Amino acid sequence: MTVAVEIERVIKRFDEVEALVGISARIESGRLTGLVGPDGAGKTTLMRMLAALMHPSEGSIRVAGCDITREAAAVHKLTGYMPQRFGLYEDLSVMENLQLYAGLRGVDKSSRAETLEKMLRFTGLGPFTKRLAGALSGGMKQKLGLACALMARPQVLLLDEPGVGVDPVSRQDLWAMVQELTSEGMAVIWSTSYLDEAERCEDVLLLDAGQLKFAGQPADLTRRLQGRSFLVGNIDGDRRSFLTEALDLDLVRDGVIQGACVRLVLAKGADRTPLETLVRRHHASLDSVAPRFEDAFIDLLGGGPGGRSPLAERMDAIVSDRSTMVECHDLSKKFGDFTATDKVNFAVQKGEILGLLGPNGAGKSTTFKMLCGLLKPSAGRAEVLGLDLRHSPSAAKLQLGYMAQKFSLYGLLSVRQNLVFFSGIYGLSGKQRRERVKEMIKVFELKPYLDVSPDTLPLGFKQRLALACSLMHRPPVLFLDEPTSGVDPITRREFWTHITGLVGKGMTVMVSTHFMEEAEYCDRVALINRGQLIALDTPDRLKASVASADLPEPTMEQAFIRLIEDQNQQAELEGQAA
Amino acid sequence: MFERLVATIIKELVVFWRDPKSRTMILVMPIVQVFIFAFAATLEVKNVDVALLDHDQGRWSHEFVARVGSASFVKELVAVKNLTELGDMIVARDVLLGIHILPEFSRNVSAGSGAAVQILIDGRRANAGQITFAYLNAIAAELGAEVSMRSTAGSVLPQARVRHWFNPNLEFIWFIVPSLAATLGMMMPLMMTSLSIARERELGTYDQMLVSPLAPVEIIAGKIIPALLAGIFISTIIALLAVYGFSVPYAGNPLWFFASMVVFVLSVAGIGLTISSFCYTQQQAILGTFFCIVPILLISGFVTPVDNMPDWLQVVAEGSPLKHFLIIVQGSFLKSMSAAQIWRNTWPMILIGVVTLSTATIVVRQNMH
């Protein structure tokens, strides 16, 4: 096994701030290495240095035998780099993008046609050569980006968070592609904040606050947690309040909702009596389960955040006579000849979390947008608290809060001005407005940041601010559009603590997501494919529905992929029959 | 409803103010432009060298040459011996133009049978040449008038002179500075509005506005009013600067002038917002704005008189709010334009505003379909 990358005592400073603090590591050829860590850990900094786009302040890095400081040009030739937002030209077609990168990478004229042909076959983009890159789905964009990065026939391939915004089906394709590359002897470095991805890597480098916390095979890290992961099932009462209580216990290091169960990680060698008491009180079962990489990751970083949401505790319980909060009847949307959403029906009950899942471009976002009033349906209707979004948009919109994936905050306004603005457009005024703003500042501990731009906030605070802005008018219904896409597990747990707390107060939540762990938090999951609602059930029942002899305990992701593939096959058969 | 609108207006103004680029644009650009236009980019022609070939050497040719020689725009009058020499001087850029007086000039003048002077202009310097030619024409016309007066009235020599009304000395600054109140008052709200929706779309904050209870009309109003304030601010400052800084006489009714200014800025903001409602990135919005600004400026009469344009273009010019407002500006500053005349140029701007603002509102609403 040859060494592809050698990192020797690397320190990187940005004006006094140390982004990387003395890192040494080796990355081998022919293996897939995951670069894992929470937001701000230094992943992107290290990636950019490996691509010779940045020099270390101290120490040295050798990539494929070349020093990145002195032989940057050679490193550029030997590496392929796919940044988070790969530089695809959105106004050029798939083929034009490929040709452009082939030209930039100096691919021989004689072998160019052959190389392009190979790339199209490899990525499965063959049928879409004429489509504009801007019109591709998230997953196809990443495949095209990968193809462009591979033009140089690199020895080292650097992928910076390639899985963000990509649905499980496309992500599975990406994995297969990368595995093919490593088997040919390429070193692939895949940076991610998704720990299920990290778990599938052959090696991982785990960064936290600029330090290398772990290097080696993920299983080695996971093994340390043996006997500390538990699944609590058959909970009598609300599993969310059980989780809150469990997280209050000192011995519980981490906890998440997993369908109808709660998954807990306990401290090393702790006395389990308090937990056993709690479990007994809820007439629940406590079973030891195999640890996951994520358990080990959170444990290594000092445990997850607490289970109490100061926000939810300040909120009054939502009083409403209605039991159905969000409803859609035969909801349809056509763009020209293309039916994006086809007669979708469902209803969301008060205090329920409903997850909307589906592959990229399958109609999930269109459906979600119609439900919160961003798009007008072509047929059918969407109602929030019985108010039709078409006939009384302002009244209906006053009942909903909305938080987008990109945290749509105004970077040119200060944190305080953002709060004041959003309270204003929801019609708050006078004393009430001042009090709500003050309350949010207090609950989310925003005081030290009041006069700075949200752009400069740490990710966790940005998320808090976005949530604060969407909740000041006390909406009974909250819409979350891929709320934790690209967010590290710790920030994500903190976010869900707030959401589960709010649901405890009677709030209704609709969440669209690509992220299977988020789906586990939902009471019910609606799966959308080819514009149709193909499944609507609890996460556990969805998983059970695809269980078979060779897959007795499918994960949410496996269930997702299976259900989608089944429908695709069926649709193709019907197409052939017609 | 009122709270919501106020919140968006304040947001828009703060966003504009906290962006260093737009702050520079609103503070520095008008001042720089006023000074560039007022002092550097003059339309006047001064210090011209003229070659003279006088084959007549008679009484009237001497008279004409004397008047040209004493004219303020002429620096030096160089006598040449023949046409070749004259041509060489033009080629070498020693002179801007040459005057060639034919042998029968004085005789024809005295006979009243119409005399002509040949003027050869360096076509490479077409603009300055044209203006100087106009000056020379004026001198010739003056002379001609005197001659005809004398021949009809006998011995008396009445003084007939061309008089430019309202701007007797053709002071360039009197024309240009008030016009800047219109052109700069147009640029600012046009840029502000055309970028506004596109910027929010690009950054993703637009969706956040759409899911709020804000109605499309409120979104539009929230974008228009800040631009309106900025445009009126700039226009007023420049108008005041013209009166108090450059001592341009102001003869019109300030109230009517101000009212028409509000309408003008509103119609311009409407154009900007229409552009913005179609654009999904700021880059598209900037391109769209330039695509509109240049023709609007060119057909407005700021650069070339509308009367000189072909008929079809004059019809198109009616669609430019700048054309109408420039008439009001120049009318209000140098002559006392009546309320009726101001109204005649205001209602087309109202029409433009109504059309553009409705288009923008419809497109914003359509975007949700």
Quick structural summary:
The complex is a heterodimer of chains A (578) and B (369). With 578 residues, chain A is an alpha/beta fold.
CATH H-tier superfamily of the domain at 3-222 in chain A: P-loop containing nucleotide triphosphate hydrolases
| Biggest interface found | A-B, 33 and 27 residues
Strand content of chain B: 5-15%
Instruction: Report the C-alpha radius of gyration of chain A, rounded.
Output: 25 Å
pLDDT averaged residue by residue of chain B = 82
What is the average of the pLDDT values of chain A? Answer: 88
Low-confidence stretches of chain A: none
Largest sheet of chain B: 4 strands, mixed
Shape of chain B: elongated
Number of strands of chain B: 4
Explain the overall architecture.
- The complex is a heterodimer of chains A (578) and B (369).
- Among the domains of chain A are: 3-222, P-loop containing nucleotide triphosphate hydrolases (Rossmann fold, 3-Layer(aba) Sandwich), CATH 3.40.50; 224-308, 2-Layer Sandwich (Alpha-Beta Plaits); 411-474, no CATH class.
- In chain A, 37% of the residues lie in helices and 26% in strands.
- Chain A is built from 21 helices and 24 strands.
- Chain A has a six-stranded mixed beta sheet with strand order 6-7-8-3-9-10, sandwiched between helices. Chain A has a six-stranded mixed beta sheet with strand order 20-21-22-17-23-24, with helices on both faces.
- In chain A, a hairpin with a 2-residue loop joins β15 and β16 (338-349).
- The N and C termini of chain A lie far apart (54 Å).
- Chain B has a four-stranded mixed beta sheet, with helices on both faces.
- With 369 residues, chain B is an alpha/beta fold.
- Chain B contains 14 helices and four strands.
- The A-B interface holds A 372-376, 393-395, 397-398, 400, 402, 404, 406, 408-413, 417, 420-429, 433, 479 and B 1, 3-4, 6-8, 10-11, 14-15, 18-19, 203-215, 368-369.
